[in-house]
Amino acid sequence: MATTMTTSGTAVVRGGAARARTRRTTGCARHGDRARRCDGRGRGMMIVTAAGGRPVRLSKNKKRAKEEMIAQKKETKADGALRGRVADADHEARRWLGQHFLVDNSVVLDAIEAAELKEGDRILEIGPGTGNLTAEMLSRGVRITAVEKDRNLAEKLREGLCKEYPEHLELIEGDFLKWDGLEDAFRRSDPGQPRAKVVANIPYNITTDVLKVLLPMGQTFEDMIFMFQEEVAQRLVNDDAGGGDYRAMSVRVHYYSKPYYIRPVLRDCFMPPPNVESCLIGFKPKEPHELLSLSGTDKQFFTFVQACFAQKRKMLRNNLKAVCDDATMEEAFNVIAREPKVRPQELTMEEYVKLFNFIRSRGDA
């Protein structure tokens, strides 16, 4: 094994004496001053300190690099009080409710930072659980309406945070998807009043249903921060018409909002850990005047989009036979400047709006 000392006192170790090189380590064409982390061809190598510190291989894989970064951050910022609050609740997580309690303080802080919370903000939290995220938000002077379905956890919150912050925390016990008080709870009395925000670690089995309720409420909410399953989040964030993950829900999300990815979240950031990878994802809902005009209702438009994706791998024209005749279909493809062989996942959200409006103008859809 060959070792080269740099001017900064760092030893660069290359595996295998037969493969050892005498290349200078002060710079390379691809990475410049970062050559101490590169072998000159963009490949990672091991770095140890002159004092004999532990070697660290810099990962070339971006996802692994993010995980390593988060793990290091967690070691320095994790707050034992979060795990303590979960333990004090004396509650066995109910898997059928999708309960995985967040116990990593860095994730809590990143969610709050992404939401840009300010004193006096109105917040909707769905599934506060043991209150780890709730407590940190309340310490920022915001006012929270929290909806908790689990009776045991709701009682714990009433005994704890509700008494500690009686003027800032309103607890609704029940199923959010069946709650009919949402609009009244967040109705703005003055058009100039700031819109509310949503910050929540929601159960993964209701994410789609929650989005269908909240995304159309751009007049009420200005930002939404959620914990999502990583795979689902990637599908929703990417406005990648033509990609294999593009589907009807992608069209809905981009019609109503501007989604953005915040950060990955490791499994051991939860108690108990979920079986899937997670992440923080944000949505900036569009206000009514920002939405593209439709020749019909929102419900009619998304029913149309769903019909277009009925057989995703088939050509779009096969799915359109259920909503319009051949003559209208041929004209419609000309309007959006697409070939008849185009597939559902290849159209953008804007093209679906144009397609819907044209077919509606012909008396179909």
Automatic annotation (TrEMBL):
SUPFAM superfamilies, A to Z: S-adenosyl-L-methionine-dependent methyltransferases
Key words, A-Z: Methyltransferase, RNA-binding, rRNA processing, S-adenosyl-L-methionine, Transferase
InterPro entries linked to this entry: KsgA/Erm (IPR001737), rRNA_Ade_diMease-like_C (IPR023165), rRNA_Ade_Mease_Trfase_CS (IPR020596), rRNA_Ade_methylase_Trfase_N (IPR020598), rRNA_adenine_dimethylase (IPR011530), SAM-dependent_MTases_sf (IPR029063)
Residue stretches of biased makeup (Low complexity): 1-29
GO MF entries: RNA binding; rRNA (adenine-N6,N6-)-dimethyltransferase activity
Pfam families: RrnaAD
Organism superkingdom: Eukaryota
CDD domains: AdoMet_MTases
Enzyme Commission no: 2.1.1.-
Claim: RNA-binding is one of the keywords in the record: yes
Region (Disordered): 1-34
Residues binding S-adenosyl-L-methionine, per UniProt: 100, 102, 127, 148, 175, 201
Annotated Ribosomal RNA adenine methylase transferase N-terminal domain residues: 107-287
NCBIfam families (alphabetical): ksgA
HAMAP family: 16SrRNA_methyltr_A
Similarity section: Belongs to the class I-like SAM-binding methyltransferase superfamily. rRNA adenine N(6)-methyltransferase family.
Official protein name in the record: rRNA adenine N(6)-methyltransferase
